[in-house]
C-alpha cells in the first residue's frame, strides 16, 4: 500500500517533469528492473484518480474541442484530396486512414495510461511517454531515450505551427475573395498583415476551459457553413461518370498527406485527453474519441466525394475558393469559415505554446513569468505569420505538413511506444502485436518520405505560377 508521502513524491515528480526537457527524472530511477511485471494489472494505482488539472474539461467540452480541432481547413481540402486519389480510392482510403488514425490514437493513450500505472504518476505527455517507453523497451532502442522528447517536441511544434500557417493563409485568402468584390483588390499578404494583431490577441487565451465557448461558436458556424456548401455542391451536380474512379500512384501521396493532415490532430487530442475531468471516458467503444472520429470521417467522405464530383480537377485547396465570388450566399460562407478558422487558431496554437513554455522556458525564468509567457505567445503568432507569408500555397502546405509530421506523430511513434510497453513478453500469440506495430512503423516511414518528397517538389514547382492558381 502506497503511503501518502509516496503519492506526494510522485505528484512532485510529474510537476517537475513538466518543467524539464527530459520530461522525467534521471533515467536511472526509471529502469524497467525497478518495475514489477505485475504492475501492469495492479489495481492499487489508477492514474485517472490522481489527476489534478487546474481547468479540466467535461466530456462534452472535449468532444466539442475534438470536432473543432479536426473540422477545420482539412475537411474543406477533401475535394482536392479526392481529385488526387479518385472517387473509389478516396472513399476506401479515407475509411482506412480514419480507422488507422483512431487505432493509433487508442494505442498511444492506452500505452500512456499503462506507463503512468507503472511509474505511479497521474499524467504523462507525449514526449515523456516516448522517453519512458524507450527506457523500458528493447535494448537497441534505449540509447535513443534521452533525445526522444526533443524529437517528439520538434515534430509536434512544427506540425502545429504548420496548421497555424495554413489557417492564416485560409482566412486571408477567403477574406480577400470577398473584399475584392467591394473594394480595390489588395495583395493577400496585406490581408495576412491585417490579421496579425487579432490573431495575437486570441492567442493570449491561456487555457482550454476558456476556449470551450469559442470552440462551440466555431462548431456551430462550421456545421452551418458545411450545410450551405453542400447546397452549392448538390445544385446541378455533374454525372459521377465524368470523374476519375482511381488516381495515379504519384498523386496518391498528395492525397495521403492531405487526408492525414485533415484526420489526425494528435497534438490537440493528447492535450484534450490530458485535460479531461473524466479521462476514463475518452476511450471505449462509445468514448469521446470513437464518437468524434466517426462523425469526422463520415463528414470528410461526404464533402470530399461530392465536392470532387462537383468541381472535378478544378477543386482548390479549400472548397470555399471554388464557390462563386459574386454570390452573396457564397461570400457569407467564406466569411463564416474565415471566422470559424480564426477562432480555431487559438486552439491549434495552444499546443506549441504549451510545449515551448512549460517544457523549455518556465523553469528557467524566475521573474515576470506571465509577461514572458505572453512574449512567447506573441512570437509563436509572428512565426506562423512569417511562414504563411513565405509559402502561401494552401493545398500543398496541407499535404506537406500532413506527410512530414503526422506520418511520424500519428502512426510510427505510437507503434514504437506500444512495442516498448509490451516488451518483452506481452505481444500475444505469434507476436501479432509486434508484427502489427512493425508494419505501422514501416507504413509511417514510407508515408513520411514519399509524401514529403512529392509535396516539396510540387511547392517548388508552384512558385513558377501565381499564388492564386495554387490556392
TrEMBL record:
The signal peptide stretch is: none
Output the InterPro entries linked to this UniProt entry: AA_transpt_TM
Span list, region Disordered: 18-58
Which superkingdom is the protein from?
Answer: Eukaryota
Supply one GO CC term from the record: vacuolar membrane
Entries under Pfam families matching the protein: Aa_trans
Keyword Membrane applies: yes
- The UniProt transmembrane annotation reads 87-109, 150-170, 190-205, 217-234, 254-272, 284-309, 329-351, 371-391, 397-422, 434-456
Q: Which GO terms describe its molecular function?
A: L-amino acid transmembrane transporter activity
What is its membrane topology? Multi-pass membrane protein
Mind listing the UniProt keywords for this protein, alphabetically?
Answer: Membrane, Transmembrane, Transmembrane helix
Where does the Amino acid transporter transmembrane domain start and stop, copy by copy? 55-455
Q: Where in the cell is it found?
A: Membrane
This protein's name: Amino acid transporter transmembrane domain-containing protein
Amino acid at each position: 500500500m502506497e503511503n501518502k508521502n509516496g503519492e506526494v513524491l510522485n505528484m512532485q515528480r510529474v510537476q517537475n517533469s513538466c518543467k524539464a526537457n527530459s520530461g522525467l527524472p534521471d533515467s536511472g530511477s526509471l529502469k524497467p528492473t525497478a518495475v514489477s511485471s505485475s504492475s501492469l494489472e495492479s489495481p492499487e494505482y489508477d492514474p485517472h484518480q490522481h489527476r489534478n488539472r487546474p481547468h479540466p474539461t467535461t466530456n462534452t467540452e472535449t468532444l466539442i474541442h475534438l470536432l473543432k480541432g479536426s473540422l477545420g481547413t482539412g475537411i474543406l481540402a477533401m475535394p482536392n484530396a479526392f481529385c488526387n486519389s479518385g472517387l473509389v480510392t478516396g472513399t476506401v482510403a479515407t475509411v482506412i486512414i480514419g480507422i488507422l488514425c483512431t487505432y493509433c490514437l487508442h494505442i498511444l493513450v492506452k500505452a500512456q495510461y499503462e506507463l503512468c500505472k507503472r511509474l505511479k504518476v497521474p499524467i504523462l505527455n507525449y514526449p515523456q511517454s516516448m522517453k519512458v517507453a524507450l527506457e523500458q523497451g528493447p535494448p537497441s532502442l534505449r540509447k535513443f531515450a534521452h533525445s526522444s522528447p526533443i524529437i517528439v517536441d520538434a515534430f509536434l511544434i512544427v506540425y502545429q505551427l504548420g496548421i497555424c500557417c495554413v489557417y492564416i493563409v485560409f482566412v486571408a485568402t477567403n477574406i480577400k475573395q470577398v473584399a475584392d468584390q467591394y473594394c480595390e483588390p489588395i495583395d493577400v499578404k496585406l490581408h495576412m498583415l491585417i490579421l496579425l494583431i487579432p490573431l495575437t490577441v486570441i492567442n493570449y487565451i491561456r487555457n482550454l476551459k476558456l476556449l470551450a465557448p469559442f470552440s462551440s461558436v466555431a462548431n456551430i458556424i462550421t456545421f452551418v457553413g458545411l450545410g450551405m456548401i453542400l447546397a452549392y455542391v448538390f445544385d446541378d451536380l455533374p454525372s459521377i461518370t465524368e470523374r476519375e474512379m482511381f488516381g495515379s500512384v504519384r498523386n496518391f501521396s498528395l492525397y495521403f498527406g492531405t487526408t492525414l493532415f485533415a484526420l489526425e490532430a494528435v497534438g490537440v487530442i493528447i492535450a484534450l485527453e490530458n485535460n479531461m475531468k473524466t479521462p476514463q471516458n475518452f476511450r471505449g467503444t462509445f468514448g469521446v474519441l470513437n464518437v468524434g472520429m466517426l462523425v469526422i470521417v463520415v463528414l470528410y467522405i461526404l464533402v470530399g466525394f461530392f465536392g470532387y464530383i462537383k468541381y472535378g480537377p478544378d477543386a482548390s485547396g479549400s472548397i470555399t475558393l471554388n464557390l462563386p465570388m459574386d454570390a452573396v450566399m457564397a461570400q457569407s460562407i467564406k466569411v463564416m469559415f474565415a471566422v470559424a478558422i480564426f477562432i480555431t487558431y487559438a486552439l491549434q496554437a495552444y499546443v506549441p505554446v504549451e510545449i515551448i513554455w512549460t517544457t523549455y522556458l518556465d523553469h528557467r525564468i524566475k521573474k515576470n513569468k506571465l509577461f514572458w509567457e505572453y512574449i512567447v505567445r506573441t512570437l509563436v503568432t509572428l512565426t506562423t505569420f512569417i511562414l504563411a507569408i513565405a509559402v502561401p500555397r494552401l493545398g500543398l502546405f496541407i499535404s506537406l505538413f500532413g506527410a512530414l509530421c503526422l506520418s511520424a506523430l500519428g502512426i510510427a511513434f505510437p507503434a514504437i511506444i506500444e512495442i516498448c510497453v509490451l516488451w518483452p513478453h506481452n505481444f500475444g500469440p505469434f507476436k501479432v502485436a509486434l508484427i502489427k506495430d512493425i508494419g505501422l512503423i514501416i507504413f509511417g516511414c514510407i508515408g513520411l518520405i514519399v509524401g514529403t518528397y512529392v509535396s516539396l517538389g510540387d511547392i517548388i514547382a508552384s512558385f513558377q505560377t501565381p499564388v492564386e492558381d495554387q490556392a
